[in-house]
Every structure is written in structure tokens, then in C-alpha cells.
Design a protein that fits this description.
rod-shaped; mainly alpha; Multidrug-efflux Transporter Regulator, Chain: A, Domain 2; 2% strand; DNA-binding; two-stranded antiparallel ribbon
């Protein structure tokens, strides 16, 4: 008994378009035709279509299947490659699920590395400080970032730091000098300066050059803080 193209497609659980595509790409040999010109498919064609369908279901591309040839050669190498890719994908997805679980459980921000986000979950940083931390996370080594986050864990929006966060750009000279002097002796500022006495102690192990990191940090600070705040920071470092 011979089957028509539509019957073959029905038996294989696929479509006419798919059968025709297999012909076009050379995966399925053209069958003989009846006297009336209609195609006449046999068991080898059905077996071939079912094998192609099974292999594509396992993730092999039509190109990979074509490379196997027309025989029933076991696709061991192709499946081993697919298995390795799936293992890597599963590992990545498991890691992503773990990160999502932390974000959902702790309502952590999504703009920081998961370990740092977890450390800072309950820290009330200003928008400028959080943005600076996000940029810093791209520049410094994981170890340096963890050290920085450890200092930030003890951050609290005490009056003098709130005053700095809310300092208007047109603050006068006396206000800026007074704020700088009070910040200079504040425990949180002292702790940060003690943890990173010189810039190189923060970004010395960065994957980028010291010059690039320094320039990027200066640019970031310049864009995040207003003129008066920048002046206070300069006075602090003086």
C-alpha cells in the first residue's frame, strides 16, 4: 500500500508543508509517482520522517540531521554535543532561579550582583549612592566590591549624610565648608576612608586599567552629584 503526501503527513503527525520542506532541503528523497502523477510514499519514507521528527524533538537542527546522512547511523556525537549544551543551559537556569528567589525573598534590587544586592537589601542608600554602587560593581573586582558593600551595610541615613544628600546646588561657601568639616569627623565617613585610604585600595585588582577606572569613577561622581555636593567631596579629600 502506498500513501499520498497528505496521508504520510497524517501518519507522521506533521504537516504537508513540513514534508515538502524536508524534500526541499534534501532530508527526504522524492518518492516514485503513480501513473496519474501523484506521489507514492512507502514505509521507508514514513520511517525517515519519524526519525527526523524525533531528532528535531531532541533539539538537533535539520543541518545536523543532514550531516548524519540517509542511513540509520546512531547520532551519538551530535547528541553528546546537545547534551553538553543542555547541561550548560540547565546550570544557567538553576543559577538564574536562585538569583530570582533571593530577589523575591528579600525584595532585592535587580541592578546589583546578587551577593551584593543581598548584603544591601536593608540598607537605605540615596539614589546617587545606589547608582554609584551599580557603576562600581562593573569596575572593581568581586573582592573589592564585597569589601565596599560590607562598609555600606553599616550605612545609616544620619542627619549629616541626609544633609549632604539634600544639599542644593547653590549652597553658599559657609554651608559647604561647615558640612565638609562635620562629615570629615563623622564615624561612617571615617570608616569608609579607613577601609579605602587610597583609591587604588578599592580598584587595584580591577579587570580594567587603573586610569580607566579612575576616569570612570570621576565621571560617575560628576554626573550623580550637584556642584555644591562635589565641592564638599573635594573639601573632604583635602
Amino acid at each position: 500500500m502506498a500513501w499520498s503526501t497528505s496521508q504520510l503527513a497524517d501518519l507522521a503527525g506533521t504537516t504537508l508543508r513540513t514534508i515538502r520542506h524536508y524534500h526541499e532541503v534534501g532530508l527526504l528523497p522524492e518518492p516514485e509517482r503513480k501513473a496519474n502523477g501523484y506521489k507514492s510514499y512507502g514505509v521507508p519514507h514514513l520511517v525517515r520522517v519519524l526519525r527526523i521528527k524525533r531528532l528535531t524533538g531532541l533539539g538537533l537542527s535539520l543541518t545536523q540531521i543532514a550531516d548524519l546522512g540517509d542511513g540509520d547511523e546512531h547520532p551519538g556525537e551530535a547528541l553528546r554535543e546537545m547534551d553538553a549544551e543542555l547541561a550548560a543551559t540547565i546550570e544557567r537556569l538553576q543559577r538564574v532561579r536562585g538569583e530570582i528567589a533571593v530577589i523575591l525573598r528579600q525584595e532585592s534590587p535587580t541592578d546589583l550582583p546578587p551577593d551584593v544586592a543581598a548584603m544591601l537589601a536593608n540598607v537605605e542608600l540615596s539614589p546617587q549612592d545606589r547608582s554609584f554602587t551599580v557603576v562600581l560593581a562593573q569596575l572593581v573586582s568581586p573582592e573589592a566590591l564585597s569589601s565596599y558593600a560590607e562598609v555600606l551595610k553599616r550605612y545609616a541615613r544620619v542627619p549629616v549624610l541626609v544633609e549632604f544628600d539634600e544639599l542644593p546646588a547653590d549652597a553658599d561657601e559657609a554651608t559647604r565648608q561647615d558640612l565638609a568639616e562635620r562629615m570629615r569627623v563623622h564615624p561612617q565617613v571615617l570608616e569608609m576612608r579607613a577601609a579605602f585610604p587610597v583609591p587604588a585600595s578599592l580598584y587595584g585588582a580591577s579587570p580594567y586599567s587603573e586610569k580607566f577606572v579612575a576616569q570612570t569613577i570621576v565621571k560617575t561622581i560628576a554626573e550623580l552629584y550637584n556642584k555644591a555636593q562635589l565641592d564638599v567631596l573635594v573639601r573632604l579629600s583635602g
